[in-house]
User: What shape does this take?
Amino acid sequence: IGEGGIKSLAGAIGEGGLPCLTSLNLNHNHIGVPGAKSLAGALSSLPCLEKLRLYSNHVGDAGLTAISEPIGKGALPKLTNLVLGSINIGDGGTKAFAGAIGEGGLACLEDLDLNENQIGDAGFAALAALMGKGKLPNLKVLADPGAHTPPLFSA
Assistant: This one.
């Protein structure tokens, strides 16, 4: 799926075409910032989504920032599994994502994969601060940012 395909899919989702969808696997596609922004516009139309996988795309900080905005407003209330590995994010996108969680987004999240990105100390510190405040109460697995190792944290 490229930019045109994700734009079409996001349009269908946004029009209420998949209200009962529980899993969306978009791994290994050609989704960049424009595609991530299209997807972001449709996230509020996925109230039943439990798993979202975006591994190995070109989302970048700007794309994750766009995706984070609806999350901070309560989109994806049932999401338990989120794969953001190898999507070319760094501290900027991670801080925006952490901000969305800080606003109450993703309270049901159990498994967060951030492997193979360029997240530095500042980005991970933003996530760690949320954990310390209990903003990810159901998190059981946190994949280690930037490493090819077992999960950093596993309950």
About this structure: Residues 60-72 form the longest helix (13 residues).
